[in-house]
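Q: What residues go here?
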């Protein structure tokens, strides 16, 4: 006779409810009741199918044995792997390496921006993003567009805040079946906070650091009617750091609505407004193969000109319906509007012991995206074999208008100028010349099919995705118009062997692609209009072990191959050709969760060996890939000494890496240590002190080419307070 265990636990003076769905024999009961609990209490991505997985007489191990149903402290472990499959699959059964950054880890580290959180993900290195956008390398693959929110593409170039985010998921390895084009090295998905229909709760927070930067946050949830809830998240951040003339501010506002339209139907809607203004800081140039030393605070730009401004509007709606305990449907619609402008004077090549070169430009981009996605999930059994079948479709439409003007010096004759090195740079007068203006229209249509088969000890996942990619653009300066249409089929195959319920051993193979126009699709040139898509192939094997319900170990080895890589055409300056291949071999291991009582950890290590394997005009075979450190160690831990007091510590180590594919400039290895103190004054009021770069190390964590290298912040302490109600 199966039974349910409802447990009430007190930890750090906070209530935590646990629903244990084990039967008396330890199996997982997948009834409609258990699935409803998952639907109600688990915060998932917008495309997550949350149906019942089987009839009561079909036993399927697709849910974790313990589901935490509290918005309060849940630690650093996460068991939900549904983003990787678009079906309700536990992380242990996903044949792919996935790193989770939970809400508790985000709060404990005191980070508010996505880039700062990603520093603690092994296998990810940060690009400076030209001082105005998120840009990362995942398994050696650079991207400005492989960002998602609730599983829907969020591909514009801007900085993303975490004020309205429940957790961050980093899915590694090429996988076009789930995400479509791009995602060659992986994808980064933010899972939004959603409204609760039953409870009223909220929090207010504030923090300030030693540079004078501060932030204010608010999170309020309230039922507004029977079966309906409203949640509002908002933030204001004021930026400052050690760099001369740097400042800025961020405003974020996100209301979300949840309506339970019946026992089998749920509707959610949200709107996000993000407004970011900041000085565009491009860092320091290089000298003799290393970052220029002694100028870590010097601003190599014009404080009256270097500026970035972006306004983002994202509206989403989703409906999910259970037709029966075995069949469910969900559909999502997202409209996004991005309006961005940035201007900068920047250091360029040619630095000496006494001088440097300066260039500059300004750029504006206006983009609108419309995305529709629908998924049908069915579960059934044939001959003792369990099946979870996913059938889905996605439609996207995007319009992008872009303009770029180049700075010219010496009465408009030169695109760069030599200036003396000094603690304060005084840029000369310059004029602006139109360099590029374009408009583009993008339409994609996608269909995908995925089957998960459960043989007991062995599970198999296989699927195909068909993408039709149609891009047309016009260069408004030259008048050149072009269009390009690509049809692509992307496969995925994974095998999971489970000698025990808590252990899975897996192997997987998957592919992805990137059209020849690149990941931002601003304009097709006469050469890029003829290029075949770049292709990515990921082969991976690994092991996952749920040591106990709140501690998760993962390890994986992989090979990621990129083909059809673009390179400059030496015979036609300004044109590109398609040749070459690169390869990244690597190993990753991670441990997340409660290691012992009151000690939560998030530990990771990545070994990456990436190089060009086929000579191109851009790089010869054997060239090391840019910004791919061979060794990357991440560690964060929080230990609670008592119910009211705790402390935390963190470490990030990266071995040296090349700033660009030229392999001419090295970013030296570094080790950064962080620390934190936590004090609960009472059940409703808490204080938190975070210290970054505790030992005040000088290092350069990121770059944009050989001469835009970002100096890291020196030691910096921030004090935060939070009131809960």
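A:
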């Amino acid at each position: 006779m199966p039974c349910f265990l409802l447990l009430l636990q007190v930890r750090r003076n906070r209530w935590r409810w646990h629903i244990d769905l084990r039967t008396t024999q330890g199996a997982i009961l997948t009834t409609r009741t258990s699935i409803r609990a998952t639907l109600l209490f688990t915060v998932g991505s917008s495309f997550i199918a949350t149906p019942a997985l089987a009839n009561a007489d079909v036993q399927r191990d697709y849910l974790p044995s313990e589901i935490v149903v509290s918005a309060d402290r849940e630690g650093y472990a996460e068991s939900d792997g549904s983003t990787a499959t678009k079906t309700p699959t536990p992380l242990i059964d996903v044949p792919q390496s996935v790193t989770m950054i939970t809400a508790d880890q985000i709060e404990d580290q005191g980070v508010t921006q996505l880039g700062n959180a990603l520093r603690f993900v092994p296998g990810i290195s940060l690009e400076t993003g030209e001082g105005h956008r998120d840009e990362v390398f995942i398994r050696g693959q650079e991207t400005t567009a492989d960002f998602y929110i609730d599983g829907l593409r969020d591909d514009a170039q801007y900085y993303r805040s975490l004020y309205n985010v429940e957790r961050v998921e980093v899915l590694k390895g090429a996988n076009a079946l789930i995400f479509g084009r791009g995602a060659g090295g992986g994808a980064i998905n933010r899972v939004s906070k959603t409204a609760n229909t039953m409870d009223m709760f909220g929090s207010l927070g504030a923090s300030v650091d030693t540079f004078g930067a501060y932030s204010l946050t608010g999170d309020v949830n309230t039922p507004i009617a029977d079966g309906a809830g409203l949640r509002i998240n908002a933030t204001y951040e004021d930026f400052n750091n050690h760099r001369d003339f740097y400042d800025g501010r961020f405003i974020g506002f996100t209301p979300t609505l949840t309506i339970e339209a019946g026992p089998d139907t749920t509707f959610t809607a949200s709107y996000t407004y993000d407004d970011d203004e900041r000085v565009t800081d491009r860092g320091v140039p290089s000298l003799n193969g290393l970052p220029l030393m002694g100028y870590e605070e010097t601003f190599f730009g014009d404080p009256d000109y270097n500026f970035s401004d972006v306004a983002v509007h994202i509206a989403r709606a989703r409906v999910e319906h259970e037709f029966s305990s075995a069949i469910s449907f969900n559909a999502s619609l997202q409209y996004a509007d991005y309006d961005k402008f940035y201007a900068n004077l920047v250091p360029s090549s040619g630095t000496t012991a006494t001088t440097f070169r300066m260039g500059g430009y300004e750029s504006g981009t206006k983009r609108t995206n419309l995305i529709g996605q629908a998924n049908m999930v069915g579960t059934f059994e044939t001959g003792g074999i369990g099946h979870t079948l996913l059938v889905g479709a996605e439609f996207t439409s995007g319009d992008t208008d872009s303009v770029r003007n180049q700075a010219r010096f010496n009465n408009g004759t030169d695109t760069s100028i030599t200036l003396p090195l000094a603690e304060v740079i005084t840029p000369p007068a310059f004029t602006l010349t139109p360099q590029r203006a374009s408009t583009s229209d993008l339409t994609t249509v996608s269909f995908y099919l995925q089957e998960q088969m459960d043989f007991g000890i062995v599970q198999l996942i296989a699927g195909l995705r068909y993408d039709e990619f149609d891009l047309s653009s016009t260069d408004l300066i030259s008048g050149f118009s072009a269009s390009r249409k690509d049809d692509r089929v992307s496969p995925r195959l994974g095998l999971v062997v489970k000698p025990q319920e808590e252990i899975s051993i897996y192997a997987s193979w998957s592919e992805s692609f990137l059209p020849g126009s690149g990941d931002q699709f601003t304009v097709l040139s006469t050469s890029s209009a003829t290029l075949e898509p770049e292709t990515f192939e990921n082969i991976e094997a690994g092991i996952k072990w749920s040591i106990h319900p709140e501690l998760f170990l993962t390890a994986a080895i992989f090979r990621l191959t990129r083909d059809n890589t673009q390179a400059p055409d030496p015979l036609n300056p300004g044109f590109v050709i398609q040749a070459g291949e690169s390869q990244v071999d690597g190993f990753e291991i991670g441990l997340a969760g409660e290691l012992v009582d009151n000690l939560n950890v998030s530990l990771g290590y990545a070994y990456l060996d990436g190089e060009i394997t086929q000579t191109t005009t851009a790089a010869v075979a054997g060239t090391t890939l840019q910004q791919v450190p061979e060794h990357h160690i991440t560690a964060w831990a929080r230990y609670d000494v008592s119910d009211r007091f705790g402390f935390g510590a963190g470490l990030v180590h990266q071995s040296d890496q090349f700033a660009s594919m030229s392999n001419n400039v090295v970013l030296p290895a570094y080790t950064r240590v962080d620390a934190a103190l936590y004090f609960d004054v009472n059940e409703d009021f808490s204080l938190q002190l975070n210290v970054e770069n505790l030992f005040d190390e000088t290092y350069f964590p990121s770059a944009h080419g050989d001469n835009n290298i970002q100096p890291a912040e020196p030691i910096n302490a921030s004090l935060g307070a939070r009131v809960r109600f």
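A: Context that may help when evaluating the design: The chain has a mean pLDDT of 88. The CA atoms of residues 202 and 725 lie 5 Å apart.
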